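[audit] Reproducing an earlier prediction to check determinism. Same input, same settings, fresh worker. If the tokens differ from the archived copy the diff job will pick it up downstream; this log only records the rerun itself.
[audit] input (117 residues):
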Amino acid sequence: MISPFMLMPFVENAFKHVSRQKHQRNFISITLEIRDQTLRLNVVNSIAETASRDVANVGGIGLKNVLRRLSLIYPDAHSIQVDDNGSSYSVFLELQLFRERTDSRLQHLSPHNEQKT
């Protein structure tokens, strides 16, 4: 299970900070995959040549909060790479997903385990 609103700030930042210049290619690319209990999110967006670098330097409040949440909720089970190459900004996130543990005492409450009479 993925913690609520863990991925949304990365997508929101791409739309907030994408370049809007007529003389350059403007784009947003979002890729999400889950394979072998690992979630991989890659978000890339073009940035204006004169864009503020506070977000690129992990200075945005939203990004700082997500990084803090990742450390608290997924300690030693995540990696993140943030890159600014001058014309695009990218975030690559990997999360190790774990199956939810089922409490056997509550298992009988599940609608899938109802006894037929």
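[audit] rerun output stored. Observation attached for the diff report: Residues 61-73 form the longest helix (13 residues).
[audit] end
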